[in-house]
Structure formats: structure tokens, C-alpha cells
Amino acid sequence: MLNGEQLFQQTKKIKLATKSSAFDTPSNNHDAEYYAPFDFTLPSSTCQCRCQLPPSLERSSSGYTVKVEYAIIVTVKHCLLCRVSRLKTLRRSISFESEPSIPVLPSSNIGSISASKLFPKLYKALASQGFSGIRTRSDECLPQYEPTVQLELLLPSPPILTPGRPTEIQLILHTPSELVNNENIYIRSVEAQLESYVEAKIGLVVKTVAEARSGWNLQGLFPIDREHFEVDLGTWRHYLIMDALPTCKSCVLDTTHFLRISAGISIDGSEKTQIVEASLEVIIIGAPPRYTTNP
User: Fold this and answer.
1) Which domain of life is it from (predicted)?
2) Does pTM top 0.70 for this prediction?
């Protein structure tokens, strides 16, 4: 069931199989426990395009709720006297999660910030001096070159995150030589967060629930002394999530996740920082089930 829309339904008539104790007819002992085992098979998809079934979930945002629920409903007919019968219905929700398909996704991405925004005074000074890297190109048809500071985020390929299992990440700050040689540049902070989007599609109506989970936030003063500076994240180079919805792509519901890294950059140790960000779409696979040994 998805927000009132039924994904599928299976109906099966089950018969009594065994009972836990003898049934004493003369004394009308109806306290015996009876068992009626049954099984069912979930369909592989909900539509003709064979997309996967969405996982069980419930998320709320902006006054509405997206909920996917799987349930078993059992109706028992109890015969009383004089051909009178009574129906009793029991309902129990079950948790379901399908294995997501693994799409082809990039394992790296680069975010950038312009030098004119990050170092306005330095940029104007270099431009006024006719610095070869910043001056206007002679061809008026081409845009003026402007150096940028770039933050590169790298993950293993394919970019898969599994709850409870750390994933190694790598951050490299690319800074043009003219900026490194003329200014004291520092990384003041590095923050990681996981952004998740649940999009439910019912007919022509589309509702999206978004949430962001902070991973870690590093504070410090890391001097940038070379063009390609790999940020030393220490123990935080392994990104860990403990709980997140698995990735799902279907005609009725999509769950999409992005890992976003934000770095605060300053000059000359100033408290004022500019933010450069890089993000990657990641695939989240549910954690394996916990296995128990029967005594």
C-alpha cells in the first residue's frame, strides 16, 4: 500500500492443518490452538516495465506523509450455533526490502568557486597587473578566463554505501598556482552530510520528502601550500552511515541519495570563509540480515 494506492493483492484460502491439543467435543473445549501454515510470493514488480517493488518506509515533510506498507490480513470464520457464524480479522504489517539495481554512476565530482568571489582584492590586483592567467583574451568571442578553486570528491566505483560499513572517501582541493603563490589560503572546516529524497508518484501527483543527515564536521586551520592538496581527514576518511533507506527506482516511488561535502576556505587566517561544495549521487544497499543460531 502506497499512500492509499494498492500496489498488489494476493488472496489465498487456507485450511486447518494441525492443532496443539486434543479437541474435546462433548465439553465444547474451544481453547485448543490450531495452526494453518501458508506461504506467499511477492511479485517481482508492480508494473509492465518490471521496476522493483519499493521498500517499506514512512517519511513525513511539509504536512504530508509518504508511506509504503506491506501487510498480511487473515480473516477467520467461526461457526456458532444455528448456522450463525462470526468473522474475525487480524492484520500484521511486515517489513520488506528489495535488492536495488546498480545503475552506472560517476565515482567522482568537482565543485568550484571563482577566484573573484573567494579573493576579490587579490583577483583585482592580479588583473590590474595584467597577469597572464587572468587577463582578458584577445578574441572577443571567447569569455574572459577566471581561475577557480575546485573541490574534488572521490568514492569507490560504483559509489555504494552500506549501513554499518565504512566507505573510504577522498578529498582534493585544486588551486591555481597564481593563487597559491600570492596568498595564504586555509581550509577552516570540512562537513559531510547525506541528503535523501523520497519521491512518491500516484497518477499525475508527485510528492517529495527530503531530509539531510549530518555525518561529521571538522574544524581547524589547514594551510594550502600546493596546487593539488589532498585533505587529510584522518579517521573521518571512512564515511559511515548507520540507518538509511535503500535506493529504489520505480514507477511509483524513487529514493535517491547524495553525499555532499562542504569545505570552508579563508585567506590569511581570517574568520570569514567562503564555501565550496561537491556532491555525488550514491547507492545505498540495505545491511545484511542478522543471523541467529537456534538453541
Assistant:
1) Eukaryota
2) yes
